[in-house]
Design a protein that fits this description.
heterodimer, A: 434 residues, alpha+beta, six-stranded mixed sheet, 16 helices, 17% strand, disordered N terminus, B: 454 residues, disordered C terminus
Chain lengths: 434, 454
């Protein structure tokens, strides 16, 4: 299938900052300190469950980059004494699906199962083996290390992934956000079973976890589920953290040779934390600059007027500490200079002058009017609440979303962008430079 | 156990009572409405029975180019205005082109459905195809082709694979079009395409959401019924000749890892309602592809990645429906070392031979059935997914009711039937193989995998 504009899924993930006033969310904390969000909904015979941990790749010890990812990856490959083959088959036998992911800040597991008693109970039992009693079998670790190393090697030959790695390394340097989840060939090579067990014990803490339950269960049952999940996790009072990004590394323009037909260009700098007060002006402002798909200024100038790209975008990725502003595009090599100069002047003009009232109005209409679409399925509700819970955003934040968007002014956008973004300090990576 | 799940599902009125209503306007526009009142939103999709399947040599990619041009204005609406109006209404919108269809969609708060109809009806009839806009947009499409295919080694393999499996069938051609054809395409080609295929009697409207069927019908009549039906060009039968012998080819591209894609031409469901005599064959092939690659412990991954350590990834795939009424049973894999490419190919073929000889186990059959029943329920969580299913089936010239009988059909597949389809279709003489031969990054390159940084 060929989609007119390639949709930035992560963009939605990054900005799922609103919710339904009508969504009844119950929250509590388990005895062991896990935060729980529960939405009861009996429309469909489905139970969705997410458990989030402060165990992303930013927690990788120096020299062990890739540990968070490998630990998470192995948890599902043998647990509670059930080997990987049987584990996957037992989930399938009841039609249940287990998934999850690791990013810079967070590691999570999710479960989707039919809510009929026998399916649900079996699925929860298996799911709890995975998060409570991962076996980390040594031969599986070795095999998976080889697979991960192969994929790292592959990523070092493809322009998109070369650009991503170079971008994060350039703007974050030695900060934990400077390396990606997979880690490096030499550091992954050295990881062993003891490392994984230790990481699990240190970071999959009940006290730092958040549990989101959505669907066809009662309040009583949700309470029981959350307690049983929380009780079986490693216990401890350690409060983990991620160092602030104190100095933003400006690396100028970095050109990397590649035989590809297009140049892959990324620009940006560290910019925004989750829950910061500038969030809404930056979010609304970015919609106008490069977040609003077909109607953004970048798309208008570079694609619609000139036909230079298929995709050009900008987004803020708010993280636990300063996440990046990223601007990206791909264009035929010979057009690199032309495209880049239009992108640069568009950004500079936006930061100097801000948006106009008409643009601001259109942005608000989209963000406010599109509010119900953010939460029109159980799957979306689970993802959204997981973000709220993981980043400890206040629950009032959900009800205030629309009014926060509506309050944003042209001046606030100008001030927020000027505060955060110096257009002369945007590191630029060009993979496939002429 | 399966019976218990099915009984349990009967307790949910949202599953039982959810009905899809079907209408047809006097100009031939088909309309399907599925009410889903869980959330105050609506999905609106317009499907045209026009895709790369209907293209001719020298003009490949025109279906997709026209899709881009549909956002470039009408007699009443300026270029780009469509997107701005939908955005202001809080909507999300896009479009996609496949071999079998072109689809345009909006997702909106429910009170804005009328806007969607007004705009879609307008561009069904009044598209303004100007040379100026075309000349810019064709460059965008060429950038899309570079990004999607030319700079992605596995995409190049997939493109070559289709033209290896199919020699006369139009599925041999890339949906995005060959670069040469894009370079030589003119606004006249786009106009011709629009005139040929964009008519209400070649379109299907699918609405899912917090709306009522009779209201949707009234709204659709208001905006779409005045568009006159047109004569649609005759579609000639396109039947791929029988393959008589293995086919093999290579792609060289900058890459660390190799990639292997192989497959056999196989049938799809043929009859509109799935009532052909051989209808069990596509279902058996579907169950087989699940048994080979349905989860991480399925045969291919368990045996080839986990036990034999020959590959980083392996998979299998098959679609039982297609408007072109032919499909491919695919096997693919990424060897962990290019030197093992032949071992990987042999290991994949070995798995097929085992099926032909021994069939599959009851446990494997039950697992696929359990997964299918659950997936069917999970799909009901996504309004977009439900609309996609109806639109695809109807545009591929099947009845959307085909999905009603799906679970039952899958449930009735036996090991013997799977052996039969494997023996009949997955033969050496029917095989096509395309291999990525990985190349270093540049001719005089610095060490592989370590880009040279200035």
């Amino acid at each position: 299938m060929f989609i007119k504009l390639f949709q930035l899924i992560f963009l939605l993930v990054c900005f799922q900052q609103n919710a339904f006033a009508v969504l009844k969310i119950n929250t509590w904390e388990t005895k062991e300190g896990a935060k729980v969000f529960f939405v009861e909904n009996h429309d469909l015979p489905i139970l969705d469950l997410n458990v989030n941990f402060f165990a992303g790749s930013a927690q990788d010890p120096v020299g062990k980059e890739g540990l968070a990812n490998l630990t998470h990856h192995l948890m599902n490959l043998g647990a509670g004494g059930i080997n990987e083959e049987k584990l996957a088959n037992q989930f399938s036998d009841i039609g249940a699906a287990i998934g999850g992911d690791v990013d810079l800040d967070r590691a999570y597991f999710k479960l989707r199962t039919l809510s009929s008693a026998s399916q649900k109970d079996k699925a929860l039992t298996l799911f709890k083996y995975v998060i409570h009693a991962p076996d980390f079998p040594a031969p599986v670790i070795d095999r998976e290390k080889d697979r991960i190393i192969a994929s790292i090697k592959q990523s070092l030959t493809q322009p998109e992934t070369i650009a991503n790695k170079a971008f994060m390394k350039s703007i974050y340097g030695d900060h934990p956000y400077g390396h990606d989840e997979a880690g490096n060939i030499d550091t992954v090579q050295k990881l062993n079973q003891a490392d994984l067990k230790q990481f699990y014990k240190n970071y999959y803490l009940s006290s730092e976890s958040s549990i989101v339950i959505v669907g066809d269960v009662s309040m009583d049952e949700a309470k029981k589920i959350s307690e049983s999940i929380s009780q079986g996790l490693p216990q401890g009072n350690t409060k983990h953290n991620i160092a602030s990004v104190t100095d933003s590394n400006y690396a100028g323009v970095k050109k990397i040779e590649h035989p590809a037909k297009q140049a892959h260009i990324l620009m940006g700098m560290p910019a925004l934390r989750r829950g910061e007060k500038d969030y809404f002006p930056l979010y609304v402002g970015n919609y106008i600059l490069g977040g609003g798909g077909f109607v953004s200024r970048l798309t208008e100038e570079v694609r619609e007027k000139k036909g230079l790209v298929y995709s050009v975008y900008s987004y803020f990725m708010p993280l636990y500490v300063e996440g990046p502003l990223e601007i990206g595009l791909q264009t035929k090599k010979e057009q690199t200079e032309e495209a880049l100069s239009i992108v640069n002047s568009t950004i500079k003009k936006f930061i100097d002058e801000g948006p106009n009232e008409k643009e601001l109005m259109a942005a608000k209409q989209n963000l406010v009017g599109g509010f119900p679409l953010r939460l029109d399925s159980n799957a979306k509700i689970v993802d959204y609440l997981s973000m709220i819970a993981f980043y400890k955003l206040p629950i009032s934040y959900i009800d205030n979303y629309i009014s926060e968007i509506n309050k944003v002014t042209v001046d606030q956008i100008k001030v927020a962008f000027k505060n955060k973004i110096d257009p002369n300090k945007l590191t630029t990576i060009i993979v496939g430079a002429e | 156990m399966l019976k218990n799940i099915l009984l349990f599902l009967l307790l949910f009125p949202s599953l039982l009572l959810a009905q899809t209503s079907e209408f047809k306007l006097s100009n031939g526009l088909k309309i399907f409405v599925r009410e889903d009142h869980r959330s105050p939103v609506v999905v609106s999709q317009v499907w045209y029975r026009a895709g790369s399947l209907d293209e001719v040599n020298g003009k490949t990619g025109v279906a997709h180019v026209l899709e881009h041009m549909m956002f470039k204005g009408t007699k009443k609406i300026k270029a780009g205005e469509f997107s701005r109006l939908i955005a202001k209404a809080g909507g999300k919108e896009n479009a996609f082109t496949g071999a079998d269809y072109t689809c345009y969609f909006q997702q909106l708060e429910k009170s804005n459905l009328e806007l969607s109809f007004k705009l879609e009806a307008d561009r069904m009839e009044n598209l303004n195809l100007s040379k100026e806009e075309f000349d810019k947009e064709i460059k965008v499409v060429m950038e899309e082709r570079r990004w999607r295919t030319e700079d992605k080694p596995t995409s190049q393999v997939k493109e070559q694979f289709l033209s290896t499996v199919f020699k006369s069938h139009p599925y041999s051609r890339p949906v995005v079009g060959w670069m040469n054809d894009l370079e030589n395409m003119t606004v006249e080609d786009a106009r011709e395409w629009y005139k040929n295929w964009y008519a209400p009697n070649n379109a299907t409207l699918v609405i899912v959401g917090d709306i009522y069927a009779k209201d949707v019908l009234n709204l659709a009549k208001k905006y779409f019924e005045k568009i006159p039906a047109r004569k649609i060009p005759e579609r000639k039968p396109q039947v791929e000749p029988k393959q008589n012998g293995e086919r093999r080819s290579y792609i060289k591209a900058p890459s660390e890892l190799s990639y292997l894609l192989m497959g056999y031409p196989v049938p799809t469901l043929n009859d509109r309602n799935g009532n052909d005599n051989n209808a069990w064959e596509p279902y058996a092939l579907e169950v087989l592809s699940n048994i080979l690659a349905g989860n991480s412990s399925s045969r291919l991954n368990q045996n080839i990645v986990r036990n034999q350590h020959l590959a980083v990834n392996v998979s299998a795939g098959y679609d039982s429906t297609a408007r072109g009424r032919i499909s491919i049973f695919e096997l693919e894999g990424t060897p962990n070392d290019f030197k093992k490419i032949t071992d990987l190919e042999n290991a994949l073929l070995q798995e097929i031979e085992k099926i032909k000889k021994d069939g599959v186990t009851q446990e494997e059959l039950d697992r696929v059935k359990a997964t299918v029943i659950a997936s069917d329920v999970y799909q009901k969580d996504s309004m977009f997914g439900m609309a996609m299913e109806i639109g695809q089936l109807e545009t591929m010239d099947y009845s959307f009711h085909l999905s009603d009988g799906y679970i039952e059909r899958i449930n009735s597949v036996t090991s013997e039937q799977i052996k039969n389809v494997a023996t009949k279709y997955l033969t050496r003489d029917n095989l096509s193989v395309v291999i990525l031969d990985p190349q270093p990054m540049t001719q005089n390159s610095s060490p592989k995998g370590r880009p040279h940084v200035h």
